Amino acid sequence: MKFEVYCDESSPEVLWDRNANKYLVLGSIWIPSDFREELKNAIKQIKSNHNYRNEIKWNKVSPSSFEFYKSLVHYFFNTNCIRFRGIVVEADKVDMVKFHNDDSELSFYKFYYQLLHHWILDFNEYYIFIDHKVNKDLNRIHNLKDVLNNANLFSSIENVQALPSHELLGIQLADFLMGALNGKINGNITSVAKSEIIKEIEKLLRHEIMPTPKAEEKFNVFKINLQGGW
C-alpha cells in the first residue's frame, strides 16, 4: 500500500539556543496516497464554509478564525484515514558533542528519523514531504531517505522531498496539530483562542495532550528518553 507523510517542526532553534524553549517538537500527518484528493477537497470545503483564505498554521489561530480551526479539529478526529504522530525532545538533555558531532542540524534530522522510522511498516511504499528549510549540508534530505530505506528493508521510501508549506495542505495540517502539541508541552500559550482549540482537541482525545502509549494510532505523541535506562 502507498502512504504519504507530511511533516513540520516547531522550535528547532532549541538545539542551538537552549533558552529559546524547553522542547523541540516535530509533527507528521499520515494518509493513504489514494486519500490525498479527498483530504484536499474536504479541507478546501471547510475553508470555503468559514470564508477562510489564509494558509493553515497554528500561528493563525485567532478569535476570528476560531470556528474554522475548531471545524478542522473535528474533521481530523472524524476521519479514519488521517493520523498524527508527534515527537517531543527535551533540548537540554541532547548531548550534541557525544552523539551529533556538535552539529545541531545533524541532530535535527536524526530526530526526524525517529519521527518517521517507528511508523514505517513492512511491504508499504512511503512518500514523505517535509517543510522546506535551508540546510548547511545540501545532502540532508537525501541522507534521511537512504537511512530510512536501510533501516526498513521490507518497505520502500520512494521519496523524501522538502517543499514550501503553502504548496501542501498536508504540511499545513501537520503545522496546526503540531502547534497545539508544542503549545501544550512547552506551556507557552497566551492566546484564548489557542487555549480553546487545545481544550477541543483534548475533549475529543478524552485526555490531555501528553505522551501516549506506542499503540496509539490517531494522535500519537512520543517523548524521547535521552537518559537511557529501561
Structure, explained:
- With 230 residues, this protein is of the alpha/beta class.
- It has one domain (2-223): Ribonuclease H-like superfamily/Ribonuclease H (Nucleotidyltransferase, domain 5).
- Helix content is 39%, strand content 20%.
- The protein has seven helices and six strands.
- The chain has helices at residues 36-49, 66-78, 96-100, 104-117, 140-151, 169-186, 192-205, and strands at 2-10, 23-32, 83-90, 125-131, 156-163, 219-223.
- A six-stranded mixed β-sheet has the order 5-4-1-2-3-6, sandwiched between helices.
- It is globular and about 45 Å long.
- The two termini are 34 Å apart.
Outline the secondary-structure elements.
Layout: E1 2-10, E2 23-32, H1 36-49, H2 66-78, E3 83-90, H3 96-100, H4 104-117, E4 125-131, H5 140-151, E5 156-163, H6 169-186, H7 192-205, E6 219-223
Parallel strand pairs: 1-4, 3-6, 4-5
Antiparallel strand pairs: 1-2, 2-3
Helix pairs in contact: 1-2, 2-7, 4-5
